[in-house]
Amino acid sequence: MKHYIFAGLIRLSAMKTSKYFKDEEFQRCQPPCSINDMEQDFLDRLDALRERCGVPLTLTSAYRPIEWERARGRTGSGDHPNRRGVDIATADSSAKFRIVKSALELGFKRIGIAAGFVHIGDTAALPQNVIWLY
Ligand SMILES: [Zn+2]
C-alpha cells in the first residue's frame, strides 16, 4: 500500500511537457484529461508528428480511463487507456493524407481512420503494422 501511494506521488510530480500541445488541449478532449496522463515519449513522438505535418493538429481524444472504455463496451486495453494514443480531428481527405503519411514516415505502426479523425497510437504490446477503419 505504501509503495502504491509513493508511485502515485511520483506520477503526479512528474510534469509532462510538449512543444506543441498545451494541457488545455487535453482538457478539451472527450473525455477531458491532462497532458500529465500521457506518456512522455509518446508526447515527444506526437510533437514530431505535429512538426512533420507542418500545421496545427486538433486533439479530440487522448487518455481514456479503463472504466470509461468498459462503460462503452470496449476492452479497455487500447492505446488510449495505455496513455499512448490520440485522435486527431481531420477536416478533409488531404488532412487525413498528411497525417497518415507523416505518421508512417515517423514509424507509427497503429493508425485508425474515421470519417472525422485519425487515430495515432504506439502501444508496443498491441498489434503492430495495422491500419483500421471505424
Ligand atoms: Zn483513438
Name its key features.
single chain; 134 residues; alpha+beta; Muramoyl-pentapeptide Carboxypeptidase, domain 2; 5-stranded mixed β-sheet; 5 helices; 5 strands; 37% helix; globular; binds zinc ion
CATH topology: Muramoyl-pentapeptide Carboxypeptidase, domain 2
Radius of gyration: 15 Å
What is bound: which ligands? zinc ion
Multimeric organization: single chain
- Categorize the overall geometry: globular
Structure description:
37% of the residues lie in helices and 16% in strands. The chain has a single domain, classed as 2-Layer Sandwich (Muramoyl-pentapeptide Carboxypeptidase, domain 2). By secondary structure, the chain is of the alpha+beta class. It has a five-stranded mixed beta sheet, with helices on one face. It has five helices and five strands. Strand 3 and strand 4 (117-121) form a beta hairpin. The termini are far apart. Bound molecules: zinc ion. Residues 61, 80, 85, 87, 112, 119 line the site of zinc ion. The site of zinc ion has 6 residues, from strand 2.
Which helices and strands occur, and which strands form pairs?
Layout: H1 2-13, H2 23-27, H3 40-53, E1 59-61, H4 66-70, E2 85-89, H5 93-105, E3 110-113, E4 117-121, E5 130-133
Parallel strand pairs: 3-5
Antiparallel strand pairs: 1-2, 2-4, 3-4
The structure holds zinc ion.
Brief characterization of the structure:
The protein has five helices and five strands, in the order αααβαβαβββ. With 134 residues, it is of the alpha+beta class. Bound molecules: zinc ion.
